[in-house]
Amino acid sequence: MPNIETGLKDMMAIDGAIGAAVVDYGSGMPLGSLSSTSQLDLTVASAGNTEVVRAKMRTMSDLGLQDAIDDILITLSTQYHIIRPLTGRKGQGLFLYLALDRDRSNLALARHRLKGVEENLDV
Predict the structure, then answer these.
(1) Are 82 and 97 in contact (CB under 8 A)?
(2) How high is the mean pLDDT in each 10-residue block of the chain (123 residues)?
């Protein structure tokens, strides 16, 4: 099973990837991250996206939804940001974060490949 470092490399191999992180949403800190650009501060992105995950989980709880988040997509004019909470027992409290350049990526394929990274990741 791939570890965090291998998982990050697999995420960065997705077409259009500009940044990837495995994040602890209890603390908001990345356990690991890789980026192909200095314009994406993954520590700041990890903390900010932690708030997105927490807010969505609170809302689901308030609504009484007994469901799981597959992923959260944030669409910007030049980028896609995908947040994928880990569902395995070992990954509880963690999420994958992938930032993509819209012009160089295929969103459906990226989501499919990110799911594969999650399934194979050993945390």
Answers:
(1) yes
(2) 87 97 95 93 96 95 94 97 87 92 97 94 83
